[in-house]
Amino acid sequence: DRQTLVAVLQFLRRSNLRESEEILRREARLLGDDLGGNVAAVATSSPGVAAVAAVPPGKGESRGDCGIGSSSRQEPRKAGSRVSSPSSKTTRSGDIIGGAVVVEDQPDVSAVLSAYNQQGDPTLYEEYYSGLKHFIECSLDCHRAELSQLFYPLFVHMYLELVYNQHESEAKSFFERFHGDQECYYQDDLRVLSSLTKKEHMKGNETMLDFRTSKFVLRISRDSYQLLKRHLQEKQNNQIWNIVQEHLYIDIFDGMPRSKQQIDAMVGSLAGEAKREANKAKVFFGLLKEPEFDVPLDDEDEEGENEEGKPKKKKPKKDNVGSKSKKQDPNAPPQNRIPLPELKDSDKLDKVMNMKEAARRVRLGPECLPSICFYTFLNAYQGLTAVDITDDSSMIVGGFADSTVRVWSVTPKKLRSVKTAADLSLIDKESDDVLERIMDEKTASELKILYGHSGPVYGTSFSPDRNYLLSCSEDGTVRLWSLQTFTCLVGYKGHNYPVWDTQFSPYGYYFVSGGHDRVARLWATDHYQPLRIFAGHLADVTCTRFHPNSNYIATGSADRTIRLWDVLNGNCVRIFTGHKGPIHSLAFSPNGRFLATGATDGRVLLWDIGHGLMVGELKGHTDTIYALRFSRDGEILASGSMDNTVRLWDAVKAFEDLETDDFTTATGHINLPENSQDLLLGTYMTKSTPVVHLHFTRRNLLLAAGAYSSQ
C-alpha cells in the first residue's frame, strides 16, 4: 500500500540509494502527486510490475489506495478511506524495511490473476468482440490495418478473463468462434492458450503470466486511436475499454497511419511491438581505434606493400570504418568506456599475421563471390548441437548431445598438450624455441575430446587468442577449457536451467551466456560470479553476440524479439520486433552499424543500430536460420539454414540509400523493398546437411559446417 512504498522510498533517499529509489518507483508505477512530503512520484508504464507485499495498516491508520501497477483492481476502495493528512502518510521506515517489502522478480501469481476478477456478463463477451470486429472491418482502409492489431491481445485477455471467472463453456465457445481470425504467426501462442481451460491451469503458466504482466504494445496513429475511443465510448462497451486501458500500452504517434505491410513487418513478438521510447537511447556503434605498435616484419618490401595495400583496398568503400585509420570513429565509445585486457606480445604477433593475410584478402562483391568449403560431420550419432571455428581458421570445435566437446585441427599441424611439470622443469627457458619445446609430441593428434558436461552442449566459442574454449550445456553450466592442456579450468554456475548459447568478447576476457531462465549473463574469465545480468526477455534467450567494439551485447529470444544491452550499465538500449518465430542467429556487420538476425520463420531481418530501425528483410530460406556471417569487409552476408542451403546476399546494396530520416525514426514507417530476390547473389545446396555454422577466413573464403542427416 502507499504508506509502505512512501516509507521505503524515503528510507532509500535518506540512505542515498538513488538508483534503487528510481527503480522501485518505476516498478511500482507510483501515480499521483508528491507522496509523503519529499518523495515526488513518477508515473511511468514500464513492463513488469513488482509485487510489493503490503504491511497491514496500524491502528488509527486507514489504508491508502494501492498505487502499485495498473493491474491493481484488488478491492473496491471504501468511501472515505483515502488518507487525507500528509503526516499520517509517512510511517516510520525503520520497522517497514525489516521484512515487509519484497520486490520479487516474478510477480506474485495470485496478485496478477486477481486483475481478472468478475466483470461484465460472460454471455455478452462474444457480442462485444464481434461488435468491435464488425466496427474495425467496416472502418476506412487506412485505419483498418492499424486497428486490426487489437484483435489478438483483446482475444487473449477476454478469453483469460472468462477462464479465470470459471465460465468454462463460454470461454470454449469464444475461443472456437474467434481463434481462426488471428494472424497465422500467433498459432503457437494460441496452442498454449487453448490448453488453459480451467482457473487452476492459469496458476503456473509462464506464457499466461507474461501476457498478464507485460503490457501488450500497439503502435497506432492518433486518428485511428480517436476513432476507436469514440466507438467504444458511444457503445458504452466498458468491457473492452477496460481491457484496452488496463492490459494494452498504446503508443500513439502523430502522422499517417501505417499500411498493412508496414505493420506486418514489425509485429509478431510475444508482447507486441517495442515502444518507440525503447529505441531512443544513444548507442556508440563505432569501432574502437586499433592499438598502434611496430613489429618488424620478415622483409622490408612486404611492409611497404602492406602499409600501401591496406588503405588502397578500402578506398572503394563509402565509409572507411573498416580501415585501420588513425582517426577515432565519431560514433565509437570512448576507448576506456569499459576496461579491456592489455595486448600481449602474442596478440600483437597475431595482429601482424592478420594484417598480412588481410593484404591478400579477396575483395568480394556480386561479380566475385567467395568459394565455400563445407565441413560435414559424418556419422555424428552423438548429435551435433554446436560448432565454432577459430578466427585464424586453424581449429574447429563441435558440441554434441552426448555431452562431449570435440576439437579438431583443420590444418596439417596436430593438436598437442603441454608437457608435465616434471618435464617442463628440464627445459632451458632462455632458448629461442622454448614455445615449441614445452609441447609434448607424444600427445599430438588431430582430435581432442573434452569430457565434463552432463548434458548436451548447445554452444561453443573459441577465445580470440586461441588459448581457451567455452562451452555451455543443458546442465546449466558454462565451462572454460584450456587449449594448452585440453582440460577444464572452470565451471561457471549461474544459470539454473539449460544454457543455450555462449560467446567470447572479440577482445577476450569477457564472455556472455544466455539460457532457459530468460536472462543473459556477462562474465569475466577470472570471476566465478557474473558481472552483469541482462533481464527483460519474456522467454528463453536463444542466442548471444558481442558487438565488434565489445561495449554491447545482442541477445535473441524465443519471445521473438532481439535486444541490445549496454555492457557498462546493463541497460537495454534497443528492442527489435518483427520476427514471427524464436531467433536463432545474430551477426553484426564489421563496421558495427548494422545487425542481421535469423529465426525459425526463415527470414533474415536487417537492423540499423544507430536509428533503431528495421532496414531490410531477406526472404528465401524455407526453414530455421541457424547461421549468419558477414564477410570480413562487410560486402556479403551469408546465411545458413535447416533447409540445407547456404545463401549469399549483397550487403552493400541492402544497406545503401537507407531512408533513415527523422520522420521514419519517429514513427517506424519503414519502407522495405517488395522483393529481396535482387539482393540474393547465390544459393548453394548440400545433399542432406543442415547448416549450423558459417565462418569467413581472413582471406574471405567461406567455411560452413553441419552434420549429415540421413532422413
UniProtKB/TrEMBL annotation:
Region of interest called Disordered, as start-end residue ranges on this chain: 54-94, 295-347
Pfam family, one: WD40
Compositional bias annotation for Basic and acidic residues: 318-329
Biased composition (Polar residues): 82-93
Biological process per Gene Ontology, one example term: transcription initiation at RNA polymerase II promoter
Subcellular location, record wording: Nucleus
GO MF entry, a single one: RNA polymerase II general transcription initiation factor activity
Principal subcellular localization: nucleus
Record-annotated TFIID subunit TAF5 NTD2 domain positions: 120-248
Keyword Ribonucleoprotein: no
Cellular-component GO terms for this entry: transcription factor TFIID complex
CDD domains registered for this protein in UniProt: TAF5_NTD2, WD40
Entry keyword annotation includes Repeat: yes
Subunit structure, interactors included: Homodimer. Component of the TFIID basal transcription factor complex, composed of TATA-box-binding protein TBP, and a number of TBP-associated factors (TAFs), including TAF1, TAF2, TAF3, TAF4, TAF5, TAF6, TAF7, TAF8, TAF9, TAF10, TAF11, TAF12 and TAF13. The TFIID complex structure can be divided into 3 modules TFIID-A, TFIID-B, and TFIID-C. TAF5 forms the TFIID-A module together with TAF3 and TBP, and in TFIID-B with TAF8. Component of the TFTC-HAT complex, at least composed of TAF5L, TAF6L, TADA3L, SUPT3H/SPT3, TAF2, TAF4, TAF5, GCN5L2/GCN5, TAF10 and TRRAP.
Protein's job: The TFIID basal transcription factor complex plays a major role in the initiation of RNA polymerase II (Pol II)-dependent transcription. TFIID recognizes and binds promoters with or without a TATA box via its subunit TBP, a TATA-box-binding protein, and promotes assembly of the pre-initiation complex (PIC). The TFIID complex consists of TBP and TBP-associated factors (TAFs), including TAF1, TAF2, TAF3, TAF4, TAF5, TAF6, TAF7, TAF8, TAF9, TAF10, TAF11, TAF12 and TAF13. The TFIID complex structure can be divided into 3 modules TFIID-A, TFIID-B, and TFIID-C.
Family: Belongs to the WD repeat TAF5 family.
Protein name per its UniProtKB record: Transcription initiation factor TFIID subunit 5
Organism annotation: Rhabdornis inornatus
Gene that this sequence comes from: Taf5
